[in-house]
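Incident review: delayed structure delivery

Summary: a single-chain prediction request sat in the queue longer than the usual turnaround. Root cause was a stuck worker, restarted by the on-call engineer. No data loss occurred. The affected request and its eventual output are reproduced below so the record is complete for anyone auditing the incident later.

Affected input:
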Amino acid sequence: MDSEIPITYVPARNTIFLSYALAWAEVLGAYDIFIGVNAIDYSGYPDCRPEYIQAYEKMANLATKAGVEGKKRLRIQTPLLDLKKSQIIQKGIGLGVRYEITHSCYDPSEHGLACGECDSCILRKEGFLEAGIQDPTRYISR
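Output delivered after worker restart:
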């Protein structure tokens, strides 16, 4: 992992997620949108940075009826933003996440096995190791 934006970058991915969430929140009359972005161990994705989230929240309050009318301020909640991967894993364990049925891989095999080599797999492996929890991820054996 280096300082460049990785090849796994998906253009505007979080913008799309947040846009759908914003539209649905307005329909429901909700004022909190949650997204699982992470700025500590992120792999250089520009839409995982706090600056991006702050800018999106400002835009959301300029682009919605509730924001324009000043009824209530919309908030983008980022509960994982400042957590290390190991902390996220520990929080997941505490919440009962079944990590054995998940993976984070950007290049899985045709059978759904994680590659074990992409940035996301490396960060996941390091997170489990640092958390002191055995990684149940099924990786391609190379």
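Verification: The chain has a mean pLDDT of 91.
Action items: add queue-age alerting; document worker restart procedure.
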